[in-house]
Batch of 4 targets.
Target 1
Amino acid sequence: MSQAKGVMVFAEVAEGKLAAITTELLGCGRKLADDLGEELSAILVGSEVSSLAQETIAFGADKAYVIEDPLLQDYQTDSYVLVMEKVARQLAPQILLMGQTSIGRDLAPRLAFRLGTAATLDCIELAIDPESKRLLQTKPVYGGNAWAIFTSEFDPQIATVRAKAMSPLERDASRQGEVITLEADLDPSAIRTRVLEKVSQEVEGVRLEAAEVVVSGGRGIGGPEGFKQLEELAKLLKGAVGASRPPCDNGWVPDVLQVGLTGKVVTPELYIAVALSGSSQHMAGCSGCKNIVAINKDPEANIFREARFGVVGDWKKVLPAFTSKVKELLAE
Ligand SMILES: Cc1cc2nc3c(=O)[nH]c(=O)nc-3n(C[C@H](O)[C@H](O)[C@H](O)COP(=O)(O)OP(=O)(O)OC[C@H]3O[C@@H](n4cnc5c(N)ncnc54)[C@H](O)[C@@H]3O)c2cc1C
């Protein structure tokens, strides 16, 4: 019988604050820990992250572990895998949660391999099986066309969780918890890569992954000019513009706007899909959206099977009318 206990959240930091995904993981981790009758801990890894320990407690953790080392300033696979392997062996969590971010996607499988366990990536629901007390890990499969539930008989049960799939708890600064510092003991020679330069991507307006509204265009938009109309609507709705693969491949919009299997996964409240067919590869990036509205001239287009509301018609006629109605409503 495994001695593993408790739920641990790998706490990512963004621009000196807890990343949104971390607060979401803490909210979900709190519920799992309560269902197991065990503790929720957070692990902060970095170079100057100790000031955020109390913040993880305010968002639900019972304990915050902190590992600081100048070698951990930037995420690097070698250093973070070494540190997290040590943490997992020393603290033996039963469940380890990470974000489905570039870091989580890199770290989780490598860690699982080293610890002789499994990692389920891109979960959208997590729960404790009332009988077995094992973690039920739900994730979309077949390009988002079905959901599958996984369990693992090995500990730690590692899962990465999709952004906005879970809700954070209300921040409570009065929550009490314990902060524990651990040593990194890193051997610099074990780190085979160096960060030479960091280049931030300039984003005008709302970031696609964080947007509550996404207006996405497909091949049917026909060129870069058409995307200006999508931008106008996105701006009015305080949202972001996305795209299917063809507009990116054709250079109509930057590659970073691609939504889908090989692009970004978005989960806004409202996804307006304009002149895109709704291929399974595209839907893999937006099937978690709360409300999909489709505009397409082909009534047989797959997107109408996924959409809550749909308009069959030429987007060049439908979108201006839609945008002017939005303007009218916003002006009221
Ligand atoms: C390994 C792999 C990974 C992939 N990854 C991705 C990915 O991440 N994201 C992605 O999007 N795709 C991805 N693809 C490509 C994917 O298979 C589809 O080819 C792509 O999503 C189609 O884009 P689309 O819907 O814009 O174009 P189409 O399928 O050509 O659809 C265009 C739609 O526009 C409609 N239309 C045309 N003119 C008008 C008009 N005037 N008014 C209204 N409607 C109009 C048409 O009726 C049609 O439904 C991937 C493919 C592979 C093989």
Target 2
Amino acid sequence: MKALVYHGPGQRSWDTVPDPALQDPTDAIVRIDSSTICGTDLHILKGDVPEVKAGTILGHEAVGTIVEIGAAVTTLSPGDRVLVSCITACGRCRFCKEGHYGLCMGGGGWIFGHLIDGLQAEYARVPFADTSVYKVPAGLSDEQVLFLADILPTAYEVGVLSGRVEPGDTVVVVGAGPIGLATIMTAKLHTPGRIVVVDRDDSRLAKALDFGADVVINNGSEDAIGRVMELTEELGADVAIEAVGVPETFELCTELIRPGGRVANVGVHGHSATLHLEKLWIRDVLITTGLVDTFTTPKLLKLIASGRLDPTVFATHRFSLEETMAAYDVFGAAAETNALKVVLEGAKHLQLVPTGDAAGVAAS
Ligand SMILES: NC(=O)c1ccc[n+]([C@@H]2O[C@H](COP(=O)([O-])OP(=O)(O)OC[C@H]3O[C@@H](n4cnc5c(N)ncnc54)[C@H](O)[C@@H]3O)[C@@H](O)[C@H]2O)c1
Ligand SMILES: [Zn+2]
Ligand SMILES: [Zn+2]
């Protein structure tokens, strides 16, 4: 089969690789019908995630069709359409039993395109299939559910729920990339009074307005703290959600928060940030961090099915899976291309043949 393979920092290629095969009885093999690229894939390519070994297939977000199941898989059958999420759950460890799948100690957690081969490929091996994939309700398109594989549950769980957004709150979202925009979308489920978005890029701020932000602030040219204080009668925001991942934006969140407010950090940080405990301790500020668990995926899926949530607006560019190399170029140059999420469309004519039989796969 064909797949996007990481060959060390700065190196990727679209290679012919062996078809995946069942390894454990709890595995399934999935034909990838739609996949996408994440900012984290770009971090990996920069060499920021050293656990990813050269030779690993990248990607941790997909919608696909079950091709083959292991002997212990009981709830899935070949032909089922499934969402394959960035988080895999063994379903048996202490953290899975608590719904903290991101912390799975039984071999799950974030493994695709990280510790095992990922989903930017024609087929993939999915471990712990019964407890990890979600059947796609009939009538929903791949594109309607694809962004449930990462950005929506991440923004909702690590941002909105950890930040305890309540009706009427002034919520400041720092960073208007896909995660910040998904935070705007899912914060609205809790009816905040006002959503204020801070970014340095005017085109991203324009997107934030399209997604329903009430106020946007360019912190490259404006005093973000001053503006938030002005908007909140000098009190500060009820909730600040960090969706960038640099020390400066985390520190900004801790400065524009009101006494008793909540700072929810979503950004992945590569450097230490300064925590001004000497100012924060007396202000009762709550600070949370986290990796997505995806425990809200079923709820978000219901909201999509009922028409209350429409994530298709994230898809700015579409490519065939074979064009994944070009899709990376477009996604990696988001500042020029205005890309949010690129959709990689698999070849649905690829037969649902038992894998390990490359010859059985119809050529495109
Ligand atoms: N916690 C989790 O489980 C989890 C999961 C997925 C992604 N993430 C992280 O969330 C963060 C956001 O992801 P994304 O895909 O939206 O990233 P992105 O790079 O597409 O967007 C970041 C945005 O921040 C803006 N920005 C950069 N520096 C800024 C500054 N100093 N002040 C204000 N704005 C600034 C950029 O203009 C951009 O619009 C990343 O750190 C990503 O790794 C976390
Ligand atoms: Zn991701
Ligand atoms: Zn587990």
Target 3
Amino acid sequence: MKKIAIFMMLFISVMASAQADTKPKNIIILFSDGATSSQYEFGRYSSALLRQQSFAVTDIVMANGQYQLMKTESANYFVTDSAAAASAMSIGYKVNNGAISMTPDGKTPPTIMKVAKEKGKRIGLLSTAPIYDASPAAFSVHAKSRRDNELIVNQYLELAPDVLMGGGSNYFLPNSFPGGKRQDGQNMIEAFQAKGYQYINTPEQLNQIKSSKLLGLFADEDLDYEIDRNSQETPNLAQMVTAALKVLNRDSKKSTNRGFVLFAENENTDSAGHQNDVAALMRDLWVFDDAVKVALEFQKQNPDTLVIVTGDHETGGFSPTYGRKNLGPAGTANYLNVRLEQLQQIERYKMSLKVFSDQFKAKTKQGASNTELNAYLNTLLQENFPGLILEDDLREKILTQSQLGSNSNYLPANILGLAIARQTGFYWGSSGHTPAPITVAAIGPGSHLFKGFDDNTAFAVKLRRLMGQK
Ligand SMILES: [Zn+2]
């Protein structure tokens, strides 16, 4: 018995050290900005009931892989922004809100993408936000401020990611061009092309990629929410991930090939949280999950791939719960409980609260009278939010463009978000970020490192270790 016990202990320790040395060739980081367990659980529940589909984030990556929780406070605040959170995850040090991988004393330890490049890996950056936005920027380059857009794009040219795709053509074009915003007069699209990049700007061009270096810019600024997206004009995240994996995995059989690191972000899950837009959030969680499924399919063909699903912070204090059906007596008989019926109601909405706000604000700027505005509001609601009841107190706030409260920064979106909550139970605690710990789910070689409760700076340490850097 004793011998068996010793043998078992030896076996376990050999297995553990073998596991510790496991280094994936490829790493795919799928990043849902603003999302953590409450959003993913909503994605799982709505996906099962409305699309009769499993939700890969919870049902595959978390269930069959590993997961951990990560705390997110920044160097200067309890509640982080995307820049500080992604910086901590990239360089392994805390930075102030708004900084891009630069510590409060001005240091710039190497980013994850710089380490990957040093290790001979190909690198790819994708986002539904402008590609120079806080999260992809902090994973790759350095800047004092997340607003230093020109500087960030200049550093991208120098870093030369093999794939760069998303929105944000405005800071690639001089301000003399339509939609261009660069003050320095440079045309960075041409600069990338001169470096051998194929430039694309439509979804169908994703099927015509010939080069091993790709720049894809599909909007001046953000790519549309899935609920608003025109599939002829804008690709979704799953389509971009599919194309990126083809480019990054070229010549994968060659002995010199060291694999790649891909960072793919859905920013719309954060924006939907800010706007308190449950219908937009649902569609964007589904399309994010479709991208996770693409990554898992790739992993099946290329088992030396680690797939990580994570984010930076929670947005909106997303809190579906039972409120009262009406202002009648409290008690369970008057509870509004969330189930299929409420999901079906939000599934009928056809427009994001952002587009609703933009259209309504445009009408107010035309100097419409109160009666005209009210009629316009009714038309917008009937056509795009069938079945939604807007109670008088909230209607009044929209028409008079009043504040909802000091915790509501996105108006009138947040007001309509509250109307939806009253009727469906999908409440929100804030229009901003919250310090809810963030889930890191991982599956594949190296996933064993992601368990327990850790700081977001540990993410960088683990990634470096997985790439063979101390
Ligand atoms: Zn945000």
Target 4
Amino acid sequence: MRKPSINKFMRTILTLVIISLSTTIFAGENVNVYSARIEKLIKPAFDAFTRQTGITVTFLTGKEAILLERLKAEGQHTKADMLITVDAGNLWLASREGVLQPVYSKTLHQQIPSSLRDPDNNWYGLTVRARTIVYSKERVNSSELSTYEDLGNSKWNGRLCLRTSKKVYNKSMVATMLKELGPHKTEKIVGGWMDNKPRILPKDSSLLKAIAAGKCDVGIVNTYYLGRELAKNTNFPVSLLWANQNDRGVHVNISGAGVTKYAKNRENAIKLIEFLSSEEAQNLFADNNMEYPVNPVVKPSPRLIQWWGPSFKADSVNVAAAGEYQKQAVKLMAALGYR
Ligand SMILES: [Fe+2]
């Protein structure tokens, strides 16, 4: 009668040992992400990563400024292994605020062009966001358009819409011009826009609606905003033109990621960034927001090709300029009266 109960006792002990061992072994098979990108844009790619590697991804989403403050406040106690955000200006700032750590990975260097990652390896681009010229299909012929500079031509007087200079997208665009063209030429470009008395809109989406409604004829937006309109209505009366194709190329920015300074799961975070920039995951990740792949071997999604062609010439200046020259860009825009 006693023998079975000893067996039962031993079995319980054995089970407890197995549970505790497996907890120890698998405790590291996790990666925690703070993301300024919303859940529906990141989760499908995270799920694919977990299916392939067995590493679970826990994430928290929020506004980039709040996530950055949180990382600073948490310091070495943070649970975050990785930060995902949009705009190189934001990634540059996170790095300067000391919440990221440099990570060298041969795979990342192969998969991501050097202009789309931090020269000091603190962050890496994951998708490309092109900011280009848009125009009314009803009132403008594409042959009338060519460059950002040309939007300062008097033929666009009273016909130009711009998003507010407060948005980081415009700060980054002007910052990269400063790096590439210097203050004199950049001042001439932005000054030309201001001479045309642009209507200032709060958002890229409202700018597109203003063109569609006939309030202005040309403007500058990130292409995925036009993609969203076209996905709803293929007859949306606004089209895009790839800017500066005969010289420096269209302004591009990124969404990207970096490993946090106090990451507990550093290797898993690197694996996740490698996965997100891999051939396998790029379309899944980029097309979710109608953005372009950062990995040059990956083609844009079929709908982007159908709308705007197979490729465009992108500006090759390192996107870190968005951060390096941001203060100067803000000053320049304010001095020229760009609200
Ligand atoms: Fe956006």
